[in-house]
Design brief:
The chain is built from one helix and 20 strands. It is an all-beta fold. The chain is rod-shaped.
């Protein structure tokens, strides 16, 4: 009979980098609020590699392809997490696109397909209404009739979301002869009769509010000077009846002093004229 011998043969199968990285999610589109601090996470677009774990063939690095979105976001190369890189302002950009790719560390690296990501920016109520005219100074004659329009205040809000940019107005000063009948319109109106002799100056505070929750508010001052009109006649202190006695044949002798007053308060002085009877 022939002789036989046996031996154990160990076959080591060496990994070949034959599996490209694959993104785990079919879609990585995301939303992000404006004004978030730098490094705030937005979305993680991870990938896997079917090559042997723990080898360069399955070690992955993520990169942004091209310049799109790099003004606003950066990517963590080891995890695929997109993060805020600089201030994102909704009033400047409402939507932007990022293209990312992942590669393994094989001797001849394999790349994933490029993933296109849409980032939608969400608005915050981050702007305060601004009065166009600032503080206002007006003059108004006292004989103006109630319901007379006085001035239209205007405030604008730089936010783009309708509720954040819609402004309403409110008169904050009470017990004054003015009102704002329509909160959606900044029309300041005379509500009651004016009287210079009662008050010649009004300082009003008007508030503008947007419709955010909570709202942003701003105030302005409206100073109204009431102008006097000559509405009162002079009145003699004796109802206009005077008498005195003089000695005949005398000249330049004072007989009496007649006095008249005028209820107008703004320097309407009284002058006197002799009328022959």
């Amino acid at each position: 009979d022939g002789l036989e011998a046996t031996a154990s043969v160990v076959v080591v199968v060496l990994d070949v980098n034959d599996s490209p990285p694959l993104f785990t999610l079919p879609n990585c589109d995301a939303q992000v609020y404006e004004n978030l601090p730098d490094t705030t996470p937005i979305v993680t677009c991870g990938a896997t590699d079917a090559d042997q774990p723990g080898t360069p063939n399955s070690q992955l690095t993520y990169t942004i392809v091209g310049a799109g979105g790099t003004d606003y976001v950066a990517i963590d190369p080891s995890s695929g997490q997109l993060r805020v890189a600089s201030n994102i302002d909704y009033e400047t950009v409402q939507l932007f696109f990022v293209r990312i790719q992942v590669e393994d560390h094989g001797a001849i690296p394999l790349f994933s397909v490029v993933r296109n990501i849409t980032i939608t920016v969400l608005d915050r109520n981050d702007n305060t209404p601004q009065f166009v005219e600032g503080n206002v100074q007006l003059s108004l004659f006292e004989n103006q009739q109630p319901n007379t329009p006085v001035f239209t205040l205007r405030a604008t809000d730089a936010d783009l979301t309708p509720s954040f940019r819609t402004v309403t107005y409110e008169l904050m000063t009470s017990n004054v002869p003015f009102d704002l009948p329509d909160p959606s319109v900044g029309l300041l109106r005379l509500a009651l009769n004016l009287d210079f002799e009662v008050s010649s100056l009004y300082v009003l505070s008007v508030r503008a509010s947007d419709q955010g929750v909570p709202p942003n508010v701003n105030t302005t001052t409206v100073t109204i000077t009431v102008l006097d009109i000559n509405e009162f006649s002079p009145v003699f202190d004796t109802n206009g009846v005077y008498s005195c006695a003089v000695v005949e044949n005398t000249n330049d002798t004072q007989c009496m002093t007649v006095v008249a007053t005028d209820a107008d308060a703004s320097g309407n002085f009284v002058s006197y004229t002799h009328l022959d009877s």
